[in-house]
From TrEMBL:
Species: Plantactinospora endophytica
SMART domains reported in the protein's UniProt record: CO_deh_flav_C (SM01092)
Annotated FAD-binding PCMH-type domain residues: 1-219
Official protein name in the record: Carbon-monoxide dehydrogenase medium subunit
InterPro entries to which the protein is assigned, alphabetical: CO_DH_flav_C, CO_DH_flav_C_dom_sf, Diverse_Substr_Oxidored, FAD-bd_PCMH, FAD-bd_PCMH-like_sf, FAD-bd_PCMH_sub1, FAD-bd_PCMH_sub2, Mopterin_DH_FAD-bd
Organism phylogeny: Bacteria, Bacillati, Actinomycetota, Actinomycetes, Micromonosporales
Keywords assigned: Oxidoreductase
Length: 325
C-alpha cells in the first residue's frame, strides 16, 4: 500500500470540500482497502465519512429511502425492507459474507469495483486501470465474465447483487456535490464500457452518494432475488435475477425483471417484461419471455453457458413467485 493522507469529515460540506481528483471516500472500506493493498487504487487522500448523517431507513408516499451509510446487514433486517421489498433484503443477504455485510455500506456496495482477476492483477494489462493497455479477458480466462453490454475494451461483469434488485425496482440514487444535489436513475447511473471502461458510473469528482430511493410499489411485496453461483457461501453470481410480480387471477398484470452476473452493469430487461404483461402465469409464457433476455448476448470462449443459465434463472424466479398452471 502506498502512503496517503487521511482525514475524517464531520459534515457533508466538510467531506465535499476535501474531495476531488486523487481523493477516495472511506465508508466500510471493504472494497477500497483491498484495492489499496493491491495498489490497484492509489488515492493521495482518503476521507473517512463514517461520521456523516447519511443513515436511516424510512418510507413515505414517494417510496423507500435508504441512507448511503446504512450497513448492508441493517438494511436487510429492516422490517420496511423485508416486508415491502423482499427482493432487496434477499439480494443483500446473498451478498458477500456476514462479516463483510456488517461492515459494508449501501453506497459503497453500489460503487464497488469489478471482480475481474485481470483488473486486480497489476502485472497484467487492464483498460479499467490503464486506458488503452488492453483487455486480456477477451481472449483469456473469461468464464465469469459478461455476455451483455460488453465491448472490445472490457467484458467484466458488474459485481453488486443489491444493484440488480434496485435497478429492477427503478430506484434512484441521490448524488451530492459542492454545487448541489441531483437524483439519477440507478439504471442510468451505471455506464456501459464502450471505449471508456475506466468510467464505470456517472459520479463526478467530489460527489458523494447520499441516499437511495425506491419508488412506492405496493406489489413489490411479491418479489424475490435468485442467485446462481458455484457455491452457496461467499461467491459472486454466475447469473442472478431480481423479479417483482403483480399477479391477479393467474394473470401477470405487471412485472419487473433485471439480471446480474451476465452484464457489464445491472441489466434491466424491458423486452422480457413486455412479453410477460397480460399473459397467464404459465411455464411456456415464462420460457418464451426469458428467451428474449439473451438476444443481444455476445458469449466468449468460456462463458457461453451463461446464455442458457440466465434464461433458466429467470424462469425459475418467475415460477417461484408466480407458480405454474
Amino acid at each position: 500500500m502506498r502512503p496517503f493522507e487521511y482525514a475524517s469529515a464531520q459534515s457533508v460540506p466538510q467531506a465535499l470540500a476535501g474531495g476531488g481528483t486523487g481523493t477516495a471516500y472511506l465508508a466500510g472500506g471493504t472494497t477500497l482497502v483491498d484495492l489499496m493493498k493491491l495498489e490497484v487504487m492509489t488515492p493521495q487522500r482518503v476521507v473517512d465519512i463514517n461520521r456523516l448523517p447519511l443513515r436511516g431507513v424510512s418510507a413515505d408516499r414517494d417510496g423507500l429511502h435508504i441512507g448511503a451509510l446504512e450497513r448492508m446487514t441493517d438494511v436487510a433486517g429492516h422490517p420496511l425492507v423485508g416486508t415491502g421489498y423482499p427482493v432487496i433484503a434477499q439480494a443483500l443477504l446473498r451478498s458477500a459474507s456476514p462479516q463483510l455485510r456488517n461492515m459494508a455500506s449501501i453506497g459503497g456496495n453500489l460503487l464497488q469495483r469489478v471482480r475481474c482477476g485481470y483488473f486486480r492483477d497489476t502485472s497484467t494489462p487492464c483498460n479499467k486501470r490503464q486506458p488503452g493497455s488492453g483487455c486480456p479477458a477477451v481472449d483469456g480466462e473469461n468464464r465469469g465474465h459478461a455476455i451483455l453490454g460488453t465491448s472490445d475494451s472490457c467484458v467484466a461483469t458488474h459485481p453488486s447483487d443489491l444493484a440488480v434488485a434496485l435497478v429492477a425496482l427503478d430506484a434512484r440514487v441521490r448524488l451530492t456535490g459542492r454545487t448541489g444535489t441531483r437524483d439519477v436513475r440507478l439504471a442510468d447511473f451505471y455506464l456501459l464500457p464502450g471505449d471508456t471502461p475506466e468510467r464505470e458510473h456517472d459520479l463526478r469528482p467530489g460527489e458523494l452518494v447520499t441516499r437511495i430511493t425506491v419508488p412506492a410499489l405496493p406489489w413489490a411485496t411479491r418479489s424475490a432475488y435468485l442467485k446462481i453461483r458455484d457455491r452457496q457461501s461467499y461467491e459472486f453470481a454466475l447469473a442472478s435475477a431480481a423479479v417483482a410480480l403483480d399477479l391477479r387471477g393467474g394473470v401477470i398484470r405487471d412485472v419487473r425483471v433485471a439480471v446480474g452476473g451476465v452484464g457489464t452493469r445491472p441489466w434491466r430487461l424491458p423486452t422480457v417484461e413486455d412479453a410477460l404483461r397480460g399473459k397467464a402465469a404459465r411455464p411456456e409464457v415464462y420460457e418464451a419471455a426469458a428467451a428474449l433476455a439473451v438476444e443481444a448476448a455476445r458469449p466468449l470462449a468460456h462463458n457461453g453457458f451463461k446464455t442458457t443459465l440466465v434464461r433458466r434463472t429467470i424462469v425459475r424466479a418467475l415460477t417461484n413467485l408466480g407458480g405454474s398452471r
